[in-house]
Design a protein that fits this description.
Length: 311
């Protein structure tokens, strides 16, 4: 059935809780988190863009990760915060489709980018003499362009599979945003085959990227056997931040999208984690563990301070 023949014109979110006092407390927490996400990731983007020392493939990819984190959290957070003050949390059918479309673009783009970042670290550590040839800003720009194309194709598949289903009621989504698993449960038809296709699409991307990441780190570990203790320490320091981000983001994605839709209440907590917590932790992880980024931020701060003092 075409999306233009739907009898459902809007959906209603149940949100995270029906306890009003707890909902208001969560609003304060998530408002602060969202504000920190914007500040932290914008600061990384500005720092990378303004310091020529950071105009390298590694930091170019890091800046793109911050951009994706801003977009990813902005797909769900503003609507969730606004709904806190509404008696009924309503979203139009078109708004719901748009939300899940952009959600999957951002999530898939981040998975692809984390895989590219693993490739970057693998070449830098294992084949340093060939690094400039195989990983440079031009190649990274092509890879980033490719990941957005791939993410868009993936999201279109997910969206088309969801929209083509008939929706004639109920229209209540047990979540705080529109995503494919909770939405297709409301379809007025058997969704088993569609669910299998959706899980196959999302699950395959997550698992293939996960295997690529594991392969990269296995190659790195084998390469480190021939290094000195100091060389191993530097390599581990470089890779640990990226590996931590991979675990924090890809783990929840695999749990949510590599199995059929469920009624697990824990799914809400997992969704909060990868849409709000991970984008907050990414700038913290990279800035606190990266001396070059911290030095560049300090220089940027001093430049701005001097500028305003003279003004």
């Amino acid at each position: 059935m075409s999306a233009f023949n739907q009898t459902v014109t809007h959906f209603v979110f149940l949100g995270l809780t029906d306890i009003r006092s707890l909902e208001l407390a969560l609003f304060v927490i998530f408002f602060i988190i969202y504000l920190l996400i914007l500040i932290g990731n914008v600061l990384i983007i500005v720092t990378v863009a303004s310091d020529r020392c950071l105009h390298t493939p590694m930091y170019f990819l890091l800046g793109n990760l911050s951009l994706i984190d801003i977009c990813h959290s902005s797909v769900t957070a503003p609507k969730m915060l606004l709904d806190t003050f509404l008696s009924q949390k309503v979203i139009s059918f078109g708004g719901c489709v748009a939300q899940l479309f952009f959600l999957h673009i951002c999530a898939c783009a981040e998975i692809f980018l984390l895989t590219i970042m693993a490739y970057d670290r693998c070449v830098a550590i294992c084949y340093p003499l060939h690094y400039v040839k195989h990983v440079n800003l031009k190649i990274c720009a092509y890879l980033v362009g490719g990941l957005w194309v791939g993410a868009t194709v993936h999201s279109l598949v997910q969206t088309v599979l969801t929209v083509r289903l008939p929706y004639c009621g109920p229209n209540v989504i047990d979540s705080f945003f529109c995503d494919v698993p909770p939405v297709i449960k409301l379809a007025c038809t058997d969704t088993y085959f569609t669910g299998v296709l959706i899980v196959s699409n999302s699950g395959m991307i997550s698992l293939v990227c996960f295997l690529a990441l594991v392969t990269s780190y296995v190659i790195i570990l084998f390469s480190l056997r021939r290094r000195t203790a100091e060389g191993r320490r530097k390599a581990f320091s470089t890779c640990s931040a990226h590996l931590l981000v991979v675990v924090l983001f890809l783990g929840p994605c695999i749990v949510l999208y590599s199995r059929p839709a469920s009624n697990f209440s824990s799914d809400k907590l997992i969704a909060v984690f990868y849409t709000m917590v991970t984008p907050l932790l990414n700038p913290v992880i990279y800035t606190l563990r990266n001396k070059e980024v911290k030095k560049s931020m300090q220089k940027l701060w001093l430049r701005k301070k001097i500028f305003f003092t003279r003004g």
